[in-house]
Design brief:
The protein is mostly helical. 54% of the residues lie in helices and 2% in strands. Helix 15 packs antiparallel against helix 16 and helix 16 runs parallel beside helix 18.
């Protein structure tokens, strides 16, 4: 809310003081007499200072703000640090009046004012839990925090109104004061909540604020690997059972009506995951609140928010490998409106097909595209088909340009975006093939046949050798079910030649090749955080293993291997020298968790 009182035009009320005033003490200081000046500093630092004393001091300082230049910086710092937030309305009003006069007369103190206000964005009291006992470092009343935060935002709004350049000075201060990610969940929650609250009345800061918050959340995310979270949760639940301690979380008054996810829930036993879960709750609630007005989606507001989040996504999230949860903020935002989901897919497609982008980003874009199409319930099958109609022709065009050249062999370093796109197509079809053929099996099969997937699978670039084996085997089973492509001959041959090829005998100079599989990454694999995960329950497609897609028996491969031999494999396959390697290490990719199960690798062909 804006400050209603006009502090610039309201004179300070008359006050009565015993002893020398601040004005006289400053005059004596210029003459070399520091006793009264030091006495003022001593009284200002009194931890038991009363409301009436604070008001009296502030009224006097308002009378002489023009004299408080840079040499009085220490004194001003002590005035700014007075314990005014959470005090009586009279104290708050007087402090805001002093603040407005100070920044108007002495802009040199703008940074100090902003730093002081931002320092109140985290609670003074830190709760530490040992067993069932709460240990705190002070007796501060936690119920006062919402009021303290309100007063600080009131002051920031006033400063932003009087000093238009506030945002330029405020953002570096917000960044410098961001708590260490090892701090408690409640400390991080309070700071992030207040940081996002600033963006409501200073919109120019939103993109930078989101970038700062998401960068910190990514730090937590990459330090909480999926396998580690699952192991910790499994062990603790077995030993202690799933428990809920709602007192561990801090709920501000304005958050009470933000829906079931904000009402608490089971905590994460993994400490880093618990902090990330808390921050995801705050960020997702912010996305929801900013995008809706009276529970109705505001299209213009959500478009602006989407543009800000996409910029942050490109800068921070897309280049970060194997993050598990932060990217779901885009997933949630896109669920509000089909146009947002299509815009996000179009953005990923532009990154993927752009040769000016680094290969690693193009591969990541393909991974995001495939995972999004597979997991987003709110994406209709028409949009899935439209994306396949972009991806598959691009793969055919790539094969046209590469399959007969000197680089027509399996090498991730040369063809990374191609293999990532193949895996995105395979992964999408694994999840969406039923929706494609349901309703009209004839039309669905005709569409799948029109994709000419056999040409991609049989190409000399050999994508089945590079894609994650779990994806490859499930895709092969589905293609066999519909009799579209018979992949098992290729899979069997690849399994016999899994060690990396280090020399090429194609002819000419020797070529070093790298046939290690893709560093597979499915960005929207199942969400593990318990409380914030409630936001995705109705919009996320979980994996349902089909009962009718059994892998082909091994004897079928033996019988058909001769019939389906490919000409390009005779004499053209690079001959491999034996090198150190591990086939099993290729299978144990932690990023495959939550995707088609690894059990498909143990099924007989």
């Amino acid at each position: 809310m804006e400050v209603e009182r006009d502090f610039m035009n309201s004179p300070p009320p008359k006050t009565v003081r015993f002893g020398d005033s601040v004005v006289n003490s400053l005059a004596k200081l210029k003459q070399g007499n520091t006793s009264d000046y030091e006495m003022i500093k001593h009284q200002l630092s009194d931890p038991e200072i009363k409301d009436a004393q604070i008001i009296s001091w502030l009224q006097e300082f308002r009378l002489c703000v023009t004299q408080l230049d840079k040499e009085h910086e220490q004194l001003i710092y002590m005035v700014l640090r007075l314990p005014w937030p959470g005090r009586s309305p009279a104290v708050v009003d007087e402090y805001l009046a002093f603040l407005s006069n100070l920044i108007s007369a002495q802009t040199v103190y703008l940074r100090s004012c902003l730093k002081t206000l931002v320092s109140n964005f985290t609670p003074r009291r830190v709760r530490i839990q040992e067993g069932n006992v709460d240990i705190s470092d002070s007796d501060d009343d936690e119920e006062n925090l919402p009021r303290i935060f309100d007063h600080c935002h009131q002051a920031l709004q006033m400063i932003a109104r009087y000093v238009p350049s506030t945002s330029r000075f405020l953002m570096p201060i917000l960044s410098d004061n961001f708590p260490f990610v090892q701090k408690s969940s409640r400390t991080l929650e309070c700071y992030v909540h207040n940081l996002l609250r600033i963006t409501v009345y200073i919109p120019a800061l939103r993109r930078d604020a989101l970038e700062l918050i998401i960068s910190k959340m990514l730090t937590l995310d990459v330090n909480a690997p999926r396998s580690e979270i699952e192991d910790t949760e499994s062990v603790r639940e077995q030993n202690h059972g799933a428990g809920t301690d709602e007192d561990f979380l801090f709920n501000m008054d304005e958050d009470e009506d933000e829906g079931p996810p904000r009402d608490g829930g089971p905590l994460m036993f993994h400490s880093v995951a618990e902090r990330l879960d808390t921050l995801m709750l705050v960020l997702l609630a912010y996305i929801k609140d900013v995008s809706h007005v009276d529970s109705v989606l505001d299209v213009e507001r959500v478009k602006v928010l989407y543009r800000d989040l996409v910029c942050v996504f490109d800068k921070l999230v897309l280049p970060t490998h194997a993050s598990c949860h932060v990217q779901f903020c885009m997933f949630y935002l896109c669920s509000f409106r089909l146009g947002l989901a299509e815009a996000f897919l179009d953005h990923l497609w532009k990154v993927l097909q752009s040769p000016s982008q680094p290969a690693v980003l193009r591969q990541a874009a393909a991974a995001y595209m495939g995972s999004f199409l597979a997991r987003a319930k709110f994406v209709p099958i028409a949009t899935v088909r439209a994306c396949l109609d972009l991806l598959v022709p691009w793969l055919h065009l790539y094969i046209d340009t590469q399959d007969s050249g000197s680089k027509a062999f399996c090498d991730v370093s040369l063809h990374g975006p191609f293999y990532a796109s193949c895996q995105a197509v395979f992964y999408t079809l694994i999840f969406r093939h039923k929706a494609i053929v349901e309703g009209s099996m004839k039309k669905g099969l005709a569409y799948l046949q029109s994709l000419n997937l056999e040409r991609i699978v049989m190409s000399q670039l050999n994508p089945l050798k590079v894609c994650l084996p779990a994806v490859t085997n499930m895709f092969a089973a589905i293609m066999r079910k519909y009799q579209l492509v018979f992949c098992y001959t290729i899979i069997e041959r690849n399994n016999r030649n899994m060690l990396p090829v280090v020399r090429s005998s194609v002819g000419g100079d020797s070529l070093s090749t790298n046939t290690n599989p893709l560093d597979t990454f499915f960005p929207f694999d199942p969400y593990l955080l318990k409380r914030s995960g409630q936001y995705f329950e109705s919009i996320y497609q979980v994996w349902e293993e089909p009962s009718d897609c059994m892998a082909a028996p091994r004897k079928d491969i033996a019988k058909n291997s001769t019939e389906e031999e490919d000409d390009f494999l005779h004499g053209e396959t690079p001959k491999a020298d034996m090198v150190m390697g591990s086939y099993e290490s290729h299978l144990r990719s932690p990023s495959s968790v939550g995707s088609p199960p690894i059990a498909f690798l143990q099924r007989p062909f």
